[in-house]
Amino acid sequence: MAAAITIQGLTKKYIGVGTGEVVAVNNLNLEVEEGEIFGFLGRNGAGKTTTIKMLLGLVFPTAGDAKILGKPMGDNAIKQEIAYLPEETYFYDSMTGWDLIDYYARLFRIGEPERSRRVKIALEKVRLQPEAWRRSIRGYSKGMRQRIGIAQALINDPKLLFLDEPTSGLDPIAHAELRDIVGSLRNEGKTVFLSSHQLADVELICSRVAIIHKGKLLTQGTIAELVHGERKAVTVQAPGFSNGMMPKLQAIVPDATHSGGDTVQFDIDDEERITAVIDLVRGLNGRVLSIVPHKRTLEEVFVETVRREDNS
Amino acid sequence: MIALAIAQQTLREALRRRVMWVILIIGVFLIALGPVFGFLSPKDSQTVLRSLGLAAILLSGLFITIVTCIYLIPVEIERRTIYTVLSKPVQRYEFVLGKFLGGFATVFVNIAAMGIVFLAMIYLQENRIPTEMFKGVLMTFFQMMLLAALTIFFSTFTTPVVNFFLSFGIFLVGNLSSVTESLTTKSNSVVRTAGVVIHYLLPNFGNFNIQNSLIRPTTEIANEGIFLRNNIIYAIIYSSVLLVLAILIFDRREV
Predict the structure, then answer these.
(1) Quick one: which of A10, A86, A243, B94 has the fewest CB in 10 Å?
(2) Which residues of A are less than 8 Å from B13 in CB distance?
(3) A155: left (phi over 0), alpha (psi -120 to 50) or beta
(4) CB distance B9–A103 less than 8 Å?
(5) Is some CB atom of chain A closer than 8 A to the CB atom of B89?
(6) Band of the pLDDT at A277, cuts 50, 70, 90?
(7) Candidates A89, A106, A156; nearest CB to B83
(8) How far is it, in rounded angstroms, from Cα A29 to Cα A42?
(9) d(Cα A62, Cα A76) in Å, to the nearest integer?
(10) Which residue, among B13, B7, B22, B105, has the nearest Cα to B65 in the 3D structure?
(11) What is the pLDDT of residue B81?
């Protein structure tokens, strides 16, 4: 499959007054394939938005290069085929939803009657109620504004979309609907570069993700690759944990802690130690109440990866 | 044309700013007061109305131009709407040009509105509309076009507050062209050089101030037609140069 985005050694440094040199993006190498929804994860200030802005030609890299749909980043020609939804954008709120999308369509030199047709399709696709189309954006809820934001990104039927936090701050229903809309873009063959803190959404709709921290790429891969391996939550009930059982248990599972009573809960991630624990508990006349497999989540992977980097 | 779409959008946004309406209403109110002041001084009623009207158009036009144009580009950056515009196939020069045309159209609408009220007041008082008054309004219009270009130029690299003081300051200095011209002939070389730089580099706003000669026919402008034509050409060329510089700066600016 061809690459929709190829980033090589992309670096952005800022010289701040009093802060000296700040590396916002540090030698980033990344490849996003056509037709995939790619999750770009990182904490606030990790360099996600700066990376997107460099790819769009809004800020200029200090070093490195990138190609978007086979053309150099910032090239005006590729803008016919891409779209961008910035995080928390204000839209001209004196305009109606229809007029706003019509304005953006004009920036693509789309003439009438095609323009009206496209505006209608975009508004329908984001499921904005038709009675709101001719209403001023000033009266829109946050969810409606986000829908309008996605509609402006769809007006040119782009091949590649950069979406920055499209579902943040929404109520659960709007959140789920917008997540489904973004997810459905894959079925239309579009590539989505999704920057988000909603890791459950990312896990649900993205095929691959990259984690960036302090401008540096920490890891990337498919969701399955990143969340590989599973832990098992073990609950053990045995009389008399205080009678010398805990030290023996902790010799096998150092993290095991006795929370009181005769029940102990802990996680183990390898089969051999599980067998050893079962043998130990049986030998002491205890009972293993449950062993529940627990799959790692993307959130856990993210937290572990970032903390590991911070501690290194 | 993309610049026209941006200009139309800019005009629409600018026209909903309350501060612009407040300045416009004050301007129209001052013009409408002309006949009242005229009654207080019946001998000079014609002069009072003409002076007050042209001065009101100039002052209101000045503040409308500055408060409108200093925000046109910074507000797009602050609200991040510029990202949704420049991520589309919009060249940066089209964006700057569209912003200028939108600001210019706003100034035009306001000066035209005040001009119509002014000419209507003159008609009510004199039962005719003298062509000199058209010329006065026209010169104010081109003066404001030049100021709009200057303000847009500064807005590509300064904050609105700095822009306000720079644009307003240069407008004041540029109106003192007779003073700055006198500096160019001083014997002190430093003063002379400063005078040359100020007089020839800064826009000569003073040349557009023809109100006195229009109001008092005793002070005639020699070759008035050529003078007006040259002023218009000067405003167009100077504004174009400022816009080219604004585009060059904005093209290298990170947003």
Answers:
(1) A243
(2) 92, 94
(3) alpha
(4) yes
(5) yes
(6) confident
(7) A89
(8) 15
(9) 20
(10) B105
(11) 93
pLDDT at A253: 81
Q: Specify the 3-state DSSP secondary structure of A155.
A: coil
Confidence of residue B209 (pLDDT cuts 50, 70, 90): confident
Chain segment A17-45, per-residue pLDDT in tens: 787 889 999 999 999 999 999 999 999 99
State the fold for domain A230-295: Alpha-Beta Plaits (3.30.70)
**Is residue A193 within 8 angstroms of chain B, CB to CB?**
no
Residue A171 has pLDDT above 70, yes or no: yes
Of A76, A89, A91, the CB nearest to B89: A76
Please give the Cα distance from A80 to B48 (Å, whole number). Answer: 58
Chain A residues within 8 A of B87 when measuring between CB atoms = 56, 58, 79, 82-84, 162
**Residue owning tokens 């911070």:** A310
Residues of chain B neighbouring A83 (CB-CB closer than 8 A):
87
Distance CA A51, CA A8 (A): 12
Nearest C-alpha of chain A: how many angstroms from B55?
33
Q: In which residue are the tokens 């001209």 written? A: A92
Q: Are B54 and B214 in contact (CB under 8 A)?
A: yes
Residue B192 has pLDDT above 90, yes or no: no
Cβ atoms of residues B117 and B30 within 8 Å: no
* pLDDT of the residue at A238: 65
| pLDDT tens per residue across span A60-94 | 999 999 999 999 998 888 999 999 999 887 889 88
Dihedral, A285, A286, A287, A292 alpha carbons, nearest 10: -140
Q: What is the pTM of this model?
A: 0.86
pLDDT reading at B83 higher than 60: yes
Average pLDDT of chain B, as a whole number: 90
Residue A79 DSSP symbol: G
One DSSP character per residue, A46-61 reads SSHHHHHHHHTTSS--
Question: Cβ–Cβ of A94/B16 closer than 8 Å?
Answer: yes
For the four alpha carbons of B3, B4, B9 and B14, in that order, the dihedral sign comes to positive
* Segment B125-136, tens digit of pLDDT: 888 888 888 888
Is it the case that residue A242 has pLDDT exceeding 60? no
Q: Is B254 on the interface with A (CB under 8 A)?
A: yes
Question: How many Cα neighbours within 13 Å face the side chain of B91?
Answer: 10
Question: Which residues does A75 contact at the CB level (< 8 Å), separation at least 6?
Answer: A57, A68
Q: B74 contacts in A (CB within 8 Å)?
A: none
B15 interface with A at CB cutoff 8 Å: no
